[in-house]
Design a protein that fits this description.
Strand order of the largest sheet: 1-2-3-4-5
Helix content: 40-55%
Structural class: alpha+beta
Distance between the termini: 67 Å
CATH topology of the largest domain: hpI Integrase, Chain A
Largest sheet: 5 strands, mixed
CATH architecture of the largest domain: Orthogonal Bundle
C-alpha cells in the first residue's frame, strides 16, 4: 500500500498484523508497522537484478523526516550500483540499545513476544547498560568481555553465561541485517559452564517446606501453597487472575492460563485439587473481607479493580494494579520459615532450594507412584519426549482427567506430610517459625 509517510501517519498508524507501507513519492522508502506499535523505517531497491533491503531505524529514534533523508541517500547509492545494504558509516548512528529494540520489535516472531522475550530483553538492557548508548558498529568483543566480567564480579557467573547466550543470536541478526560486519560475541568464551539444577527436595524436606507456608503472611501463604500444589512456574502463579478460574464450586475446578503467560505460547488448562480450591477460595474471601472493611473509597476502588488472585499492593505508572512483586524477599522468608521449623526439631537448615525445585519434586513423586512420564510433563507444561515429531502434530488431547487424578494424588501426598489441621495448630506453626 502506497501512502505519504509522514510524522502524523506513523504516529497514528495502528495495525492488527505486521504490515509494510511504501511511500508514494520516494520509491523504495517504507515503514514496517507491528501490532505492538513498533515502527521501523526501511529502504528497498534492486541492484543488478538482486533485491536489497536496509533497515534505516526505528520510530521515534528516527523521525519520518530523518528517515526520508537517509532513504534518499540510499536511493542515490542504489542508482550508482553500490550495495547499500552493507554496513555504512551513516547507519552507524544506530546505538546498541536502539538495535536491541529493533531486534525484539521486528526479528522475534509475534507468537514469541511473550514474557520470555521481555525478560530476555530486560536482562540484556540491564546487564549491558554501559554500552546501550554506544554506536552499534563500535561495540567490540572487548566490550562484551567487560560487560560479562562486571556481571561475574558482582557474584552472578551463571547470569553472565546466560547473557552471553542471549547476545549471540541478537548480534547474529545484526550481521544478517547488515547492521554490522561481524558478530563480536563469536570470539568471546562463556564466563562459566551452564549448569542444570538437579535439586529435588525429598519427602522429609518437602514436609518442612509445606508446613512453612503456614508461617507466611497473606497473600504469600496462599501464593506459596498454590506453587506447591500446582507445580506451575512462579511467574505464572503471580499472574493468576480470578477470571482464569472456573468451576471452583463444581466437580472439575480448573485454571485456564492464557497463552501469553505460558512458555509454549498456548492456552493451558491446569486442573485444581480440592485442597487447592480451599486455598484459593479462602484467599479470595480474605480479599473480599478487606474490601468490605476498607474505609477509604479510593482504596476500595483500587482493591475492586485488582484482577489478580494474589496481589501485593503494587500499582503501575498508569494507575493499574500490577502482579505480585518482591519475589526475592518472598523466597527468603519461605526458606527462613522452613529452617526455623527444622531448628525447633534440632535439624540443620535445608540445603539451598528454590520454588522451581518443587516442580522436580512433583514430577519425581508422580513417577515413583506410577504416573506416566507424559502426564507428569504435561502437568509442568512441558512437551513430552514420548509424544514428539509427527505424533505431536496430531496428538492434541490434553489428558485433563489423567492430569486431574495425578494432581489430586500429589496434593493428598503433600498434605499428608504435615498440614496443621486446625487454626490453633496453624498459629502454633507460625509462632514456631517466627
Amino acid at each position: 500500500m502506497k501512502v505519504n509517510i509522514s510524522e502524523r501517519f506513523v504516529r497514528a498508524l495502528s495495525v492488527e498484523k505486521r504490515c509494510t507501507f511504501w511511500d508514494d513519492k520516494l520509491a523504495g522508502f517504507g515503514v514496517r508497522k507491528s501490532p505492538n506499535g513498533a515502527a521501523t523505517f526501511i529502504f528497498r531497491a534492486r541492484i543488478k537484478r538482486v533485491v536489497r533491503e536496509a533497515v534505516i531505524g526505528t520510530y521515534p529514534a528516527f523521525s519520518a523526516a530523518a528517515a526520508r533523508e537517509e532513504a534518499k541517500a540510499l536511493r542515490r547509492s542504489a542508482e550508482r550500483g553500490d550495495d547499500f545494504s552493507r554496513p555504512r558509516a551513516a547507519r552507524g548512528a544506530l546505538s546498541f540499545g536502539d538495535a536491541v529494540a529493533l531486534y525484539f520489535d521486528t526479528a522475534v516472531p509475534l507468537k514469541k513476544r511473550n514474557r520470555y522475550a521481555r525478560e530476555t530483553r530486560m536482562a540484556i538492557e540491564k546487564n549491558c547498560a554501559r554500552i546501550l548508548k554506544r554506536p552499534l558498529d563500535s561495540v567490540t568483543e572487548d566490550d562484551i568481555r567487560e560487560a560479562l566480567a562486571a556481571i561475574v564480579k558482582r557474584g552472578a557467573p551463571h547470569m553472565a553465561t546466560n547473557v552471553h547466550a542471549m547476545l549471540g543470536p541478537v548480534f547474529e541478526w545484526f550481521v544478517t541485517e547488515r547492521l554490522i560486519a561481524e558478530n563480536p560475541v563469536r570470539r568471546v568464551a562463556p564466563p562459566a559452564e551452564r549448569q542444570r539444577r538437579r535439586r529435588r527436595p525429598d519427602d522429609a524436606e518437602l514436609g518442612y517446606i509445606w508446613r512453612a507456608t503456614f508461617a507466611l503472611e497473606p497473600p504469600w501463604q496462599a501464593f506459596a501453597q498454590t506453587l506447591v500444589l500446582t507445580g506451575q512456574r512462579i511467574s505464572s502463579v503471580a499472574q493468576m487472575e480470578a477470571d482464569h478460574l472456573a468451576n471452583l464450586g463444581g466437580a472439575q475446578p480448573e485454571w485456564r492460563q492464557p497463552g501469553e503467560s505460558m512458555k509454549m505460547d498456548e492456552e493451558w488448562i491446569t486442573p485444581l485439587a480440592p485442597a487447592l480450591v480451599d486455598v484459593l477460595v479462602g484467599e479470595m474471601a480474605r480479599r473480599r473481607a478487606e474490601i468490605e472493611a476498607c474505609e477509604s473509597d479510593e482504596r476500595r476502588a483500587v482493591l475492586v479493580s485488582v484482577p489478580f488472585v494474589f496481589w501485593g499492593g503494587r500499582i503501575g505508572r498508569n494507575g493499574s494494579p500490577r502482579p505480585m512483586s518482591g519475589l526475592s524477599k518472598f523466597r527468603t522468608a519461605w526458606r527462613n520459615a522452613a529452617d526455623a521449623l527444622r531448628a525447633k526439631d534440632g535439624l540443620p537448615p535445608l540445603k539451598h532450594w528454590q520454588p522451581h525445585d518443587l516442580r522436580r519434586a512433583l514430577s519425581s513423586t508422580l513417577g515413583r507412584n506410577g504416573v506416566p512420564l507424559h502426564i507428569a510433563e504435561l502437568i509442568l507444561d512441558h512437551r513430552s519426549r514420548e509424544i514428539s515429531g509427527v505424533a505431536a502434530v496430531y496428538q492434541l488431547y490434553q489428558f485433563l482427567s489423567e492430569r486431574r487424578a495425578a494432581l489430586n494424588q500429589w496434593a493428598e501426598h503433600v498434605v499428608s506430610l504435615g498440614e496443621p489441621a486446625t487454626a490453633p495448630q496453624r498459629a502454633a506453626v507460625k509462632q514456631e517459625a517466627s
